[in-house]
């Protein structure tokens, strides 16, 4: 096991009918800005519940945070914070709204140009407004970590920041809030959570037995519940397990003391940037090929994955690995998500442009061994046609 | 899944040579009281390391905290805190020293008779001194929770308290600190951790798939590493996995959103009280019989335990359950721990006294269904001869 630090102070309030606990969780005298995305928060009644739970606390609302939250929109929210003398933020939504709220929390307390927060990872954020979240979509794990991704609309730059000052103080996880989501978003959430785990698990063994077992448990859970989450609109148990599993995938727990990969995410980003594919769909395309192309470096863990997650115990090593990768692909497809570039109308002539983008963004040494070169990524794209 | 709250703000610093990080973790201007148990902290060099890491911070030392920390001893430490104007505590040891430090932290800030803290669960503690821990023995999970057990020597009363004000601010977990422990303490630690998991897992199913998988992963890990932990004095990997697994067993994670049992612990306490048996040995005696006697109420989970933890997939339901219990017993015995009362010179004529003690302590409705009556406990003792 590698040395590590683990620290996660976010309070989770989990279960049906828990939104009313805002009444206890938000400070009595807080001046609150509620941040949310589209009209669904209003339509499904969550905003009304939140307003009621806040009681006579002064509160304002800021809607319209985009699926990939933009610096431009969030900067307007920071303006609201200052104009209204806000001292507590409340995010109502999924990963995008929570990521956006983290940025607003940090930017509101930052004296310089807030874009610096996104250029300089973590280090410039010295304080942030306190905030909580009411989760309405499970996928990114933002409800229980201190990471955020923000896009600068003007230049289409996706930027990342992380700071321990932007852990949510609390997150309310009510699985029934996800009942009204469309299947496409639900499938994206399952694939996003699944790939988060794989990026922290499928590297090379370091005798981190607890982390491995936890990762395998999360993968097995997602495999068991995934199809039900997507196809069964109001099944409490599968939505509850999805919500708790997704929070566990990126809260630091399974990534503590182990090597991490993240090449699938970084290679996938270029598909979003050039072709506008949903983030999760890029993962569904890239991950199976990435595992196939990098099988030597990942051999020991791929065999463990085959045995423990897919119960594949017979056949040659390579046959077991092939079958495990095939089952991974089948699982994604069972959620009605295409796993080939051709499913999205992208053909071989796109690969050169994608590789050039990777080069332009400095993505030339990815993965747990820094050995995912541009040539490796090219192979991955070719294997994904 | 049952509704739940989860909150655990303790910072974990894990790995070899991490004690020096005290330099960063303890506030610069702190006036520190170091609390420890016997002479081993001095002998194995941990105290010297701690003193060095504290640098020029003012610090005092208080040794002699017992294996079952007593109210009487801890009250003296509280006196030191007040006399020396201490504002930060540092526990060097295992569960007993950390439990004791939690009590000192709360008592030092409590205006009334500190025994009230132990009589009235949680509610009277409104604040506590901040503290950290350097763990030297893995077993109780005290390094990452807010529970403590303290014994009043005068009356031999074991009392429990819990308060979110006594989470350690940080715990340093260096597996090499456990290299010099005797096999008896190591075996106790493994059994203690194993039984913690079972008390939160082997109840009845509530569709808490993540918690079940995590619990099963911890049990499998303990089974894999247990014999090596006990018999191999300086194996980093097994000690590291033991240390991280033990912290995970009682930090709120696997117990969130599930029913809990704890009858084995409460019944076992009487064996410690009347016959002075190590806590873990009482668990090794009681647990297999408890599972056997209560097989109907636990049937579904026992079958899941048999399949997922012990890979038992053939035979009748009862045969599978019997085999799983037998393997549990064999596992404890493989750590050189007796699992029968007779191994400790306790015979059938002791049972009446033990049952009377349970009655005297109000232990008449234990377990996840409150159906462990005195008659059930009597059966358990009889099955443990």
TrEMBL record, chains A, B:
Family: Belongs to the iron-containing alcohol dehydrogenase family.
Isomerase found in the keyword field: no
Organism (species): Cupriavidus yeoncheonensis
Annotated protein name in UniProt: Alcohol dehydrogenase YqhD
Gene3D superfamilies: 3.40.50.1970, Dehydroquinate synthase-like - alpha domain
Gene encoding the protein: yqhD
Domain Fe-containing alcohol dehydrogenase-like C-terminal: 187-358
Cofactor(s) named in the record: Fe cation
Every Alcohol dehydrogenase iron-type/glycerol dehydrogenase GldA domain range: 9-175
Oxidoreductase is among the record's keywords: yes
Enzyme Commission no: 1.1.1.-
Cellular component GO terms, alphabetical: cytosol
GO MF assignments: alcohol dehydrogenase (NADP+) activity; butanol dehydrogenase (NAD+) activity; metal ion binding; methylglyoxal reductase (NADPH) (acetol producing) activity
Keywords: Oxidoreductase
SUPFAM superfamilies linked: Dehydroquinate synthase-like
Taxonomy, superkingdom: Bacteria
């Amino acid at each position: 096991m590698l040395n590590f630090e683990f620290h996660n102070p976010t309070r989770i309030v989990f279960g049906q009918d828990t939104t009313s606990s805002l009444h206890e969780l938000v400070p009595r005298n807080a001046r609150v800005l509620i941040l949310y995305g589209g009209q669904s928060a209003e339509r499904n009644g969550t905003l009304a519940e939140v307003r009621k739970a806040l009681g006579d606390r002064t509160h304002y609302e800021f809607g319209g945070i985009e699926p990939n939250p933009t610096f431009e929109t969030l900067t307007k929210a920071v303006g609201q914070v200052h104009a209204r003398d806000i001292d507590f933020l409340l995010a109502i939504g999924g990963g995008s709204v929570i990521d956006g709220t983290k940025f607003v929390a940090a930017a509101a307390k930052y004296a310089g140009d807030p874009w610096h927060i996104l250029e300089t990872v973590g280090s410039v954020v010295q304080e942030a407004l306190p905030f909580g979240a009411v989760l309405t979509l499970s996928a990114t794990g933002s409800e229980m970590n201190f990471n955020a991704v923000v896009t600068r609309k003007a230049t289409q730059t996706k930027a990342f920041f992380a700071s321990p000052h932007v852990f949510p103080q609390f997150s309310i996880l009510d699985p029934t809030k996800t009942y009204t989501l469309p299947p496409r978003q639900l499938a994206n959430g399952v694939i996003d959570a699944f790939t988060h785990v794989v990026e922290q698990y499928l590297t090379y063994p370091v005798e981190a037995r607890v982390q491995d077992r936890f990762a395998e448990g999360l993968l097995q859970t997602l495999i068991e519940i995934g199809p039900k989450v997507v196809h069964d609109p109001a099944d409490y148990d599968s939505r509850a397990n999805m919500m708790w599993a997704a929070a566990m995938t990126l809260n630091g727990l399974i990534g503590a003391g182990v090597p991490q990969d993240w090449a699938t995410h970084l290679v996938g980003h270029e598909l979003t940037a050039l072709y506008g594919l949903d983030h999760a769909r890029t993962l569904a395309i890239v991950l199976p090929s990435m595992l196939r192309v990098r099988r030597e470096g990942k051999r020991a863990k791929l065999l463990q994955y085959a045995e423990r997650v897919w119960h594949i115990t017979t056949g040659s090593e390579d046959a077991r690995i092939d079958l495990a990768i095939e089952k991974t692909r089948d699982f994604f497809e069972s959620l009605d998500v295409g796993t080939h570039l051709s499913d999205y109308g992208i053909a071989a002539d796109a690969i050169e442009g994608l590789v050039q983008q990777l080069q332009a963004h400095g993505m030339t040494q990815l993965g747990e061994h820094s050995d995912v070169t541009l040539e490796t990524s090219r192979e991955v794209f070719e294997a994904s046609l």
